[in-house]
Amino acid sequence: MSQQTLSPVADKQTKTKKGKKSLPPKLIIKLGKFVWTTIWHLMMSKLAPRNKSGEYIRPNSEFRNSVGTDQGNVYQPATGRYNLIAGLGCPWAHRTLVVRSLKGLEQAISLTIVSPSPIEGGWVFNQEYEGCRTLAELYELAQPGYGGRFTVPVLWDSQTKTIVNNESAEIIVMLNSQFNEFANNPTLDLYPQELKDKIDQWNERTYASVNNGVYRCGFAQTQEAYDQVYHELFTTLDEIDTALSGSRYLCGETVTLADVRLFTTLFRFDTVYYALFKCNRKRIQDYQNLGPYLRDLYQIRGIADTCDLESVKRDYYGNLFPLNPGGIIPSGPDPKFLQEPHNRDKVNSKQ
């Protein structure tokens, strides 16, 4: 048989392949890109509200009451009355866990953990709480008809069955000052009067461009919006790194709420924000001062106990579908680097 002769079966397959019509690859790519981009913008609009330029706009927290000894205040300090509801992966909730641990309030203020569920589209209690299975149900219990976002942290009052506050910046101030009679470390003041102005300045500076800046990068929906905040983020990180060359902590020789608020973002940066949120100019580990500063804070007694890097990876990579459609969770990095020497105790703070 000639080498050019095909068997009937092979000849039929060849004709089928030749006769089969398909869309041109370019058109397939265009169609796929259009469909995915449309769906992506729809999902992102639910995940991250944006303005006309495509920049992520974080909604304000809506429960803003305070625990205090002021006469007439419904929420008086007490032990066993309040419960902190937090997600281990959330940096905003993590702030409250750090202050609760540093102040030694574990016995006074209980803790309930929630986990994100992509199926439920929000936070779910690991065990039913107040008759609620989801955080959304708890918000509805606190305020029937509530139409806002169901976020953590939540400071819950078990006496009145309501949410006292869901703004992390305000909760940590309360934990620092309003529960000292029940704290194991009552003399620790993370917001001392003489440093308040400086702490507030740092908080204002780091919130927009770092704490929220990484989210503004990750949730940006236009190139222009991303480029702008990317520049803001790393300009601020560079400035903080320079400031830390002459100061052990942001406000001098003592840890303050400014450090707590920055820490929970830095702790997640190399693992999550660097890759998933496209904040990839430089890792925190690569900074001369920010890297050791992060390790210094992590190694303070009680702080490492609040850190769960596996939960952080699982919550971000496993639940932010629009940013990671495959849901693949990275194996690294090895958190052992956080235990390496920091030598920050040798820095002479400039007063």
TrEMBL record:
**Catalytic-site annotation from UniProt:** 90 (nucleophile), 215 (proton donor/acceptor)
Question: Which residues are marked as site: Lowers pKa of active site Cys?
Answer: 273, 316
Q: Which residues form the GST C-terminal domain?
A: 192-316
Tell me the Gene3D superfamilies matching this sequence.
Answer: 1.20.1050.10, Glutaredoxin
Could you name the domain of life of the organism this protein comes from? Answer: Bacteria
The UniProt entry, under SUPFAM superfamilies, shows: GST C-terminal domain-like (SSF47616), Thioredoxin-like (SSF52833)
**GO cellular component terms, semicolon-separated:** cytoplasm
Keyword vocabulary terms for this entry: Transferase
Give one GO term, molecular function aspect. Answer: glutathione transferase activity
Residue positions annotated to bind glutathione are 123, 149-152, 167-168
Residue ranges for the region (Disordered) are 1-21, 332-351
Write out the biased-composition intervals (Basic and acidic residues): 337-351
Please give the PANTHER family that the UniProt record associates with this protein: GLUTATHIONE S-TRANSFERASE OMEGA-LIKE 1-RELATED, GLUTATHIONYL-HYDROQUINONE REDUCTASE
Stated name of the protein: Glutathione S-transferase family protein
